[in-house]
Specification:
Blueprint lengths: L1 E6 L8 H7 L4 E4 H12 L3 H12 L3 H12 L6 E5 L4 H10 L2 E8 L2 H11 L8 H14 L1 H6 L3 E4 L4 H14 L4
Parallel strand pairs: 1-3, 1-4, 2-3, 4-5
Helix pairs in contact: 1-9, 2-3, 4-5
Length: 178
């Protein structure tokens, strides 16, 4: 099974991968969805539940839950994407379960990401610069910077939307997904 992990700080541009991936018949699992579902079950906010889950079940708990979902999928010959990888614990767990695993990181500057989050206005997005910085600090404590450093691929998404879409399409072609 071929699996691509996606990493990037909030607002970097990970969600556009969903749109592009549809053209390539890719199945996407979002680790943030696991967090959001658990937050609803426990009536907690996503930031708190992300920390709580890791305390209760270990640093790779979200990866474990995501891998379980992938292994239950009947389409074993398709490319799978795991979006939202945050730590090397998660990377290591996924690598243990999928021999053909590569990691792509999406990078954008804090200024660019903050502007995108304000425009996106999703419930868990930061509305103030202070909240934005706290969220980034939480992500950095999970180890996301280490994940970015050890990525197999890196795409910078700083400027032009069309250029970013082109880079994503080139990426999918480069990993031989048609």
């Amino acid at each position: 099974m071929k699996v691509i992990g996606i990493c990037g700080l909030p607002g970097s541009g990970k969600s556009l991968i969903h749109e592009i991936a549809k053209d390539y018949n890719v199945i996407i699992y979002n680790m943030g969805d696991v967090i959001r579902e658990e937050a609803l079950k426990r009536d907690m906010n996503t930031g708190d539940i992300a920390i709580q889950l890791r305390k209760e079940e270990g640093d790779n708990v979200v990866a474990k839950l995501t891998v379980e979902r992938i292994k239950k999928n009947e389409y074993k010959n398709r490319l799978f994407i795991i979006e939202g990888i945050r730590s090397l614990f998660e990377v290591d767990f996924i690598k243990e379960n999928f021999e053909d695993f590569k990691l792509l990181s999406i990078f954008a500057s804090p200024k660019t990401r903050f502007m995108r989050l304000k425009m996106r206005n999703r419930e868990d997005d930061s509305n103030s610069l202070d909240e934005f910085k706290k969220r980034d600090e939480r992500e950095l404590k999970f180890g996301i910077a280490n994940v970015i450093v050890y990525s197999d691929y890196l795409i910078v998404n700083e400027y032009d939307f069309e250029d970013y879409k082109k880079k994503l399409r080139e990426f999918f072609k480069s990993i031989h997904v048609s």
